[in-house]
Write a structure and sequence with these properties.
With 503 residues, the chain is of the alpha+beta class. Helix content is 27%, strand content 28%. The strands form five sheets. The chain has an eight-stranded mixed sheet with strand order 6-5-9-3-2-15-18-17. Strands 1-20-21-22-24-23 form a six-stranded mixed sheet. The longest helix has 23 residues, at 3-25.
């Protein structure tokens, strides 16, 4: 170990120890009132009208500064993910050392491990450098698309643990969504290989990308990340958990019992902070969008409280993060959601100004997908119809005079006259509007009709039971129907048959 690296290890280790002692002795008191504070950053820059392109195939770049590997201190039965990440903001490159500790709880011996590699869904973004299995270098793997197949030298028996170490480089592309960079930010989401759920009938739940919808299915896991940021001055880290500074431009991120971990980096973020009960809500917005950011915080905070009551289980994290993004629409992750700058820039200050309902929708995903997981590819309606109908429930509670507006106006329901079967996979439709009309809007209409038939008491008791029984798990459509007490002989079953072709 050279002197530079030895010194860096010493500084980081000392700082981490100091931070841990400080955190252990702190008692933070929260106010139930929403009061935002701001941090200033550099002037917002408008995106260019054209996207820069390169005619050369990119090659992996070696970052100059070595970083220490910090092992996670989290222990539990869930999979354990530890990361050491060096992010070069100017070069748009990340060097990553990842460790995975996986406990086989499938109920069978495994001859093969399958990992999902989301960044490899994009050409020339993911560069695998090395792979170790139980500390032995492993080269007999197959990486095709988003699937990394690892044939094990000996079977992994039920109850046994395997340790995997992966070293790789990420070179995100310009303006390519949740894993990309723009003039204003780097969004680092769906960025690491992970072990998906294992289904006894179909095996590893790995699905290819489609033209519409999301294809990733997660188990709950524990995450520990050491992040070193290089490049521009004044860079701010927005993450799905608190980014705790451990040194200059170095951060520790830790998330327990989460579906995923994501973060975004920018020197143009204005940080808004609100304490909402036991939850700290942070919004990271571009300059000039502070008012819209306050509205996003307000409705997110109200939704967190409302849904905790309606669905019978409180939001499980201490941090909820909102990030304004350069890519279209919104996207949810565990403890964080993105909303397009289009909604921030177009916000008119009213509840009907699009942004509030989208904030509520993405917040609802903290229950429908993050808390209660599901197969987004094969049963996308299960989370999307519930998140969409949660918009209506929120409107019904806080803006009852606008419930007709919710049904009859906007893009939500009657405006698009949604038709077709709700039980559509992401591979059954290539046009986004049609996909939304059926999975989101028809799904919300179905839930409303089901509520009418069951009555409010049975309907909401069913939702609360669904959350209680399947929190931290992955539920199926059959699970939902069973919990709601629906079968084909009942009036509720007749409602299901009107919306679902497979029922």
């Amino acid at each position: 170990m050279n002197n530079i690296k030895r010194s860096l290890v010493r500084v980081v280790t000392t700082t981490l120890i100091s931070v841990s002692f400080l955190l252990a002795g702190c008692e933070v008191r929260y106010s139930t009132q929403i009061s935002a504070t701001y941090t200033q950053a550099e002037t917002f820059v408008i995106l260019p009208s054209s996207v820069p392109t390169s005619t050369n195939t990119p090659e992996p770049v070696i970052l100059q500064e070595p970083t220490p590997t910090i092992e996670t201190t989290i222990e539990g039965e869930r999979a354990q993910y530890g990361f050491t990440v060096v992010l070069d903001y100017n070069k748009h490159i990340l060097d990553v050392e990842e460790s995975i500790s996986y406990l086989n709880e499938t109920g069978r011996s495994l001859e093969m491990l399958e990992l999902v590699v989301p960044p490899n869904q994009i050409d020339e973004v993911f560069y695998l450098k090395s792979l170790l299995v139980n500390n032995r270098e492993f080269t007999d793997y197959v990486l095709e698309g988003n699937r990394l197949s690892i044939p094990l030298e000996s079977a992994l028996h039920d109850g046994d643990t395997v340790d995997i170490s992966i070293t790789y480089q990420l070179m995100p592309k310009y303006n390519a969504g949740v894993l990309s960079y723009t003039k204003n930010q780097m969004n680092i989401s769906d960025w690491y290989p992970f072990i998906p759920p294992f289904d006894q009938e179909i095996g590893w739940m790995i699905h290819p990308q489609a033209e519409v919808g999301e294809n990733l299915v997660y188990d709950k896991a524990d995450f520990s990340v050491f992040l070193a940021v290089m490049g521009e001055q004044g860079l701010v880290v927005a993450a799905s958990t608190e980014a705790v500074p451990v040194d200059v431009n170095m951060y520790k991120l830790e998330s327990i019992n989460a579906r995923n971990l994501t973060f975004s980096v920018s020197n143009k973020y204005q940080e808004l902070i609100s304490h909402n009960g036991s939850t700290t809500i942070r919004a990271y917005v571009f300059k000039g969008d502070e008012s819209a950011g306050e509205a996003a915080i307000e409705h997110t905070g109200k939704a967190l409280i409302s849904f905790s009551v309606l669905f019978g289980m409180a939001f499980p994290h201490e941090t909820m993060t909102i990030v304004e993004s350069d890519f279209p629409d919104g996207m949810e992750y565990d403890g964080l959601y993105y909303l397009s700058r289009t909604y921030f820039d177009g916000f008119d200050g009213t509840y009907q100004g699009y942004l509030p309902l989208l904030a509520v929708h993405e917040t609802a995903h903290q229950w429908w997908l993050e808390m209660v997981g599901s197969d987004q590819a094969m049963q996308p309606w299960l989370d999307e119809m519930l998140a969409t109908y949660s918009e209506y429930l929120y409107t019904e509670q806080f803006y009852p005079e606008l419930t007709d507006w919710w049904w009859d106006y906007r893009y939500r329901v009657e405006k698009y006259n949604p038709q077709g079967w709700v039980d559509m996979t992401i591979y059954d439709e290539t046009e986004l509007r049609s996909y939304i009309n059926t999975v989101y809007l028809q799904g919300a209409s179905f839930l409303h009709e089901l509520r009418k038939v069951l009555g409010d008491d049975a309907f909401f008791n069913g939702l609360r039971t669904y959350v209680a029984e399947y929190s931290d798990k992955n539920a199926t459509w059959d699970d939902f129907l069973s919990v709601m007490g629906v079968d084909q002989s009942t009036e509720a079953g007749n409602v299901v048959s009107q919306y679902f072709r497979s029922y």
